[in-house]
Amino acid sequence: xxxxxxxxxxxxxxxxxxxxxxxxxxxxxxxxxxxxxxxxxxxxxxxxxxxxxxxxxxxxxxxxxxxxxxxxxxxxxxxxxxxxxxxxxxxxxxxxxxxxxxxxxxxxxxxxxxxxxxxxxxxxxxxxxxxxxxxxxxxxxxxxxxxxxxxxxxxxxxxxxxxxxxxxxxxxxxxxxxxxxxxxxxxxxxxxxxxxxxxxxxxxxxxxxxxxxxxxxxxxxxxxxxxxxxxxxxxxxxxxxxxxx
Length: 245
Prior knowledge:
- It is built from twelve helices and nine strands.
- It has two domains: about 5-195, 2-enoyl-CoA Hydratase, Chain A, domain 1, CATH 3.90.226; about 200-245.
- The protein has helices at about 30-40, 65-70, 80-90, 105-110, 130, 140-150, 150-160, 165-170, 185-195, 200-210, 215-225, 235-245; strands at about 5-10, 10-15, 50-55, 95-100, 100-105, 115-120, 125, 165, 175-180.
- The protein starts with a strand and ends with a helix.
- About 45% of the residues lie in helices and about 15% in strands.
- By secondary structure, the protein is of the alpha/beta class.
């Protein structure tokens, strides 16, 4: 059985963590499969315009699979999981993460690699590194403060208190919170709306916004001026269609 499945449909790729019996715990083997899918999608910018990342079953993911590691399932290199998460963040395509149920620790670090997080009503976001006497290695200390601010990130990390889907929206961790039974349909409709726009622009927007976060205000403006790819190849076609009205 595949630990991560991929389903393509007219420009949309849906990646599903597929260990529902284990609450989609993130084993090294699962990361190997996820990495392979992400590399393939990265090399298909003209076939895939938007990506959805989700979990099968009642949870997005309960987090890092400590039992798998204890049983000898180890990553190819120590930084494999963090490198895979970085790769997702750096995909040219927008990524939407749909979260229901548990989104704990390593799973939260994985979700934070997405451009947008949409929560189901059952979602619970939590950092439990402190419960096990561990510290972040997959990007929590950078990406969580970027989403919710430094104070809120520290509170989440220090306390290990779960944050509901509705609360996640209030603090900026999630974009929206919807009922679990419509979560996938909702994010799919969102992705379809994105796909109606120029994929060239989607890729340009993501690159400019993400890279701009690495600069101060004026440097970010200069980065945009220097690095915006300008007009895409379908500008004339889209203008003509608008004129016909």
